[in-house]
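Re: that chain you flagged

S.,

Sorry for the slow reply, it's been a week of failed gels. I finally had a moment to sit down with the sequence you sent. For the record, here it is as I used it:
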Amino acid sequence: MTLPRAVVTMGCPSGIGPEVSVVAAEAERAARVLLVGDLGAALAAALGRGIDPARIVGVSEPAAAWRMPKERIAVWQPTADLAPRDRKLGAPTLLSGAAQLAWVDAACDQVARGHADALVTGPVSKEAVVRSKAPGSKAFLGHTEHLQARLGAREVVMAFWSPALVTSLATTHVPLARVPQAVTPVLVAGATYWLAWLLARVSGGSPRIAVAALNPHAGEGGLLGREERTRIGPGIVRARARLRRSGIDATIDGPVPAETAFRLALARRWDGVVAMYHDQATIPMKLSGFGETVNVSLGLPIVRTSVDHGTAYDRAGCWSAEARGMRAAIALAASLVASDPARVPIKGTPTRKGTRPSRSA
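Prediction finished late last night. Pasting the structure tokens below so you have them in one place:
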């Protein structure tokens, strides 16, 4: 069987992204990998990690990567060369901010057009991207929202996968003060549905899911908040109906106090947890599986995964960055591609009009 083709964006060239990308590509055996970014940054990362720079080969067009010997590490640079000052470790610039976004867009387009099977993204600097004022940068809140807009996806759900814990988010990059109003039955239902989809796709069987409460003690019968009754509970009802229509067999419990939901999920009572807001999910994920956790975007018409860490400017240039996260992100992307039955999504998976069926969701 042909190996899945993954395009991997290097992230910020001033951070550890190029390093972990090169290290992961050098070790990858379950997928063909094409790095997308600056060739000079890739060569510097190879030298820093003791990888023969002769193995780093620039390609003028992505298709060449899939024909190369496996011992080569292909790099596609869809932008102009970055000057050394624009890839200085620990010091991102406006030009490098624009380049980071351009690499994501170019890699995304390759997958959307069918020239690759999955997109894996390295850590970017949101600040550098926005300050660059490059096209599309003004509204950049992160990969998830940006890719949703670029691909015209009707809905997108941020999820995190690790060997210890799997979770999805009803809301993503929302200020905490706005979360109670941002949590709606529609978003709760979507996050629940796609988490069940992911678990069924990766692990098989009938997933068991806990939907976390927003308030302490699940609102204590309304004494500590009513969102569990007015928003989360109705969202669970919608999710169960959608799962039945889609033919996905899953058990949905909730709203469950968040502290209990995550503790018992780690004890294997539940296979996954739906969180209401960003840090409700990421704190237990990073405590239980930092370095092995994968960020996966569900609802897009392409497979997209990412590392769970940032640019780590303080570690850039030490040449000791742990690449397990990038390797896990590539592995999960390859698994999602390989497990897609004839590249046709599970019954009921929404697709964008005019596009091919979703591969990851």
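What I noticed first: DSSP finds eleven helices and twelve strands in the chain.

Talk soon,
D.
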